[in-house]
Design a protein that fits this description.
This protein is α+β, with helices and mostly antiparallel strands. It is 38% helix and 22% strand. The protein has a 4-stranded mixed beta sheet, covered by helices on one side. The longest helix has 12 residues.
Length: 90
Amino acid sequence: MSVNVILFTLNNCIHCKSLKKRLKLESIDFHEIEINDNQKIWDEVVNQTGHNSLPTIFIRKNNSDTGPVYVAGVDFMSDDEGLNIIKQHV
């Protein structure tokens, strides 16, 4: 099953930059959604997860708008943990 990695970020977020760099080094494709430019979408994510933490990872199943969401500080505590979660899905 194909998946798409969607990474919710903030421009000045050090943790976001670090995870993006790790994904690029591992040649893992991802789509970035910067929350300041996409406030409505981010509000929906916060409403659904109950958390306002970045980076947040959404693993979208191919041909679907569903999939797991992983929140920094809740579901993973480091770039390594976030990267390992993503690797489990791609």
